[in-house]
Fold:
Amino acid sequence: MSDQKIVTPDTAVIQQNGGFEDVLREAQQSGEFQPLLDNIPYANLIGLKFQRLGNDVLFHLPKNDDNIGNPILPAIHGGVIGGFMELSASLHLMMNMDCATLPKMIDFSLDYLRAGRHQDTYAECQVWRQGTRVANVAINAWQTERSSPIATARAHFLLTK
Amino acid sequence: MSDQKIVTPDTAVIQQNGGFEDVLREAQQSGEFQPLLDNIPYANLIGLKFQRLGNDVLFHLPKNDDNIGNPILPAIHGGVIGGFMELSASLHLMMNMDCATLPKMIDFSLDYLRAGRHQDTYAECQVWRQGTRVANVAINAWQTERSSPIATARAHFLLTK
Structure:
């Protein structure tokens, strides 16, 4: 077919978009999400780990010198705290959805409450609302005590087929 | 003095907090901000670069396999776009402030407008307001054209002595 000429490598890759959703479907069926995480380079870059506790999921960002923003304090950079919380929200939603579509983040609002020290950071998410088209997720991050969060955020996701 | 016993290595480091501000003051005086950037491990982790264009600053996140969130599309992870924009906002403010205090981010709100493809990403910031205590910075990120941003965000910073 002559119109195949206009398929660039990029658009060819996009047409295989089902691939990630296959990985997601498999993870949702088996309950084993580590392979999904292994498929996300940014998760490996910052060193994200998780632990399932029933329906809850505890996300964990281990202390990592590469995530430092202020080397003198030393403090974790706000950008990595935000990135960790965004990634946690996406993963939490994928782990708790009953469909295997890739959620697309619409917006993200983050309030910093305390300095993020150079130590392990944890995050937990709650799906406040999951409609057929939009989901609303809240995220809290803490270091020493869950009751003293270092940041709180919320995100909206578009759920498309 | 006996009360020195309770100084942990962490608190000892915090007492040297002036160090980063010294680096910042030097950068502001010389107009040479690369040494400041070299002091921020998270900037090196994601590969942030910048270019000064008069008072404007163009921030640049080169295409990097480690920043991928969806390997099938492939698309940059929202978390790294957010982190890049947060870091750009902090740096832009530090480059344009007339004092050498380290701005502390209070909050960050991000709207995703288009998918971030696996290619170079750029960001520009504007300081909407800089009071004595709070600064308000807007950030736009784009890939192909400045007029088609992939994300737009704003941040508040606390300016303390």
About this structure: Residues 133 and 159 of chain B are 5 Å apart (CA to CA). Strands of chain B lie at 49-53, 56-61, 68-70, 75-76, 104-112, 121-130, 134-142, 149-158. The longest helix of chain B spans residues 78-96. The helical segments of chain B are 9-14, 18-30, 34-38, 41-46, 78-96.
